From TrEMBL, chain A:
This is ATP synthase epsilon chain, chloroplastic. F-type ATPases have 2 components, CF(1) - the catalytic core - and CF(0) - the membrane proton channel. CF(1) has five subunits: alpha(3), beta(3), gamma(1), delta(1), epsilon(1). CF(0) has three main subunits: a, b and c. Keywords: ATP synthesis, CF(1), Chloroplast, Hydrogen ion transport, Ion transport, Membrane, Plastid, Thylakoid, Transport. Residues 3-81 form the ATP synthase F1 complex delta/epsilon subunit N-terminal domain. It is found in: Membrane; Plastid, Chloroplast thylakoid membrane. HAMAP family: ATP_synth_epsil_bac. Produces ATP from ADP in the presence of a proton gradient across the membrane. One of its GO terms (cellular component) is proton-transporting ATP synthase complex. The keyword Electron transport does not apply. Belongs to the ATPase epsilon chain family. Its main location: membrane. Pfam families: ATP-synt_DE, ATP-synt_DE_N. It is a peripheral membrane protein.
Amino acid sequence: MTLNLCVLTPNRSVWNSEVNGIILPTNNGQIGVLPNHAPTATAVDIGILRIRLNDQWLTMALMGGFARIGNNAITILVNEAERGSDIDPQEAQKTLEIAEANLRKAEGKRQVIEANLALRRARTRVEASNTIS
Amino acid sequence: MSCTSNSVFRVSSNPSINLKPSISIETKFNPFHQLPYSSKPTSRFQIKCTIRKIRERLSTVKNTQKIAEAMKLVSAAKVRRAQEAVINGRPFSEALARMLYHINESVQLEDVDVPLASVRTVRKVALVVITGERGLCGGFNNAVIRKAESRIQELQKLGLDCTIISVGKKGNAYFSRRMPSLFVDRFVEGEGFPTVKEAQTIADDVFSLFVSEQVDKVEMLYTKFVSLISSDPVIQTLLPISPKGKVVDAYGNSVDALEDEFFRLTTKEGKLAVERLKVGKRSELELHPLLEFEQDPVQIIDAMMPLYLNSQILRALQESLASEVAARMNAMNNATENAVELNTALTMVYNRKRQSKITEELLEIVAGAEALRPLD
């Protein structure tokens, strides 16, 4: 029995095939989903999605969204998703440094909100490109 | 031969083509008809130049024609890609709209307090204006800018403050000139195809403006792709989002995504045509009755609203791009046709001049030979 995982972004479908299990980063921590999971709807935080496929774990950086777990069918709707293997580690590290610098420079409620979001996204990308386990 | 040096060729102007000299109707249809030396009362333009100049002009027009035709073909290819991008984004927006609808159904009874849907008394309005990056697209950018101006006037008459977020180089250029009298929040420049990152930048900006209560309402002005020939600038209310997921126009007309139709570029009898397919309202309720919410429904809706915002903005960007490219295709098509006409006119004039020059020389030679013949 395998799960059918569907990861959708506004401009394309990133993943649409069967998996053995996933670990989903939500606002309340990480949840693992195996076949025959109870139907659940959850918000997805900016974090790393781990996909288990044939005893191998793949990573994907998710930039926040929503997930719905149905009858062995998971639909994840995110603003942006990148496969860990597609992210260039150096470039991700540079983006992280820029984001940190921006946060230090930020003034005012608006800029702080924006800078924080950018920082979290950059951090997720760096983590996704590093952990290949 | 009643031929004199033909340095003046009168052409009559075709009233439907502004300021473009064209052959008089007579000569066009009767190529063997004698040249109208007598001045036509409707003539306004004269091609009064030497053969060399006409040759130069001919080559210029040929070049321009080639360029215009190339741009037309490129734009035709881009329209197809733009429309494919919209189709690729369909699964996302459909799934999102469905889930939003379902989740709202189950939280109907509770008092949902979502920051992005909070309706406040409107004092300040932000207007996101989406224009194109380059010119040569007919009246596209002008239509958008005119609509933006009229909307700003309306809002100012109502006593509301207006902030602009300008997307696209053309709009940026315009609004930067209006800077002192109009407050522009941010200039966004796109790079080719609209990406999620761009939509994210705009969405972040709009989000922070709205949540920090600097504005109370956000509207978006973009060009809706109606058909290959016509496109319409529309104003859509982005924030506050109505919890039902219905998207409403600035004037209260529903621009619902659930009932949307999308266009498809196909060929009909060898010509490009646009097919519109309506997306029917999905009535299948896949919501499992035992669906558990991992978090508070409020938090879940909170997470979905930015997604919705993002996808709306991205769709607007994509439609704008498709309209711009279609407008460019049309403009270049017209330019090519005009160039062909101009080419014909100039070629005619060139040939006439050439022939009359030859005749002149012949006459001189013959007359000279006659004069040199020994008197009998």
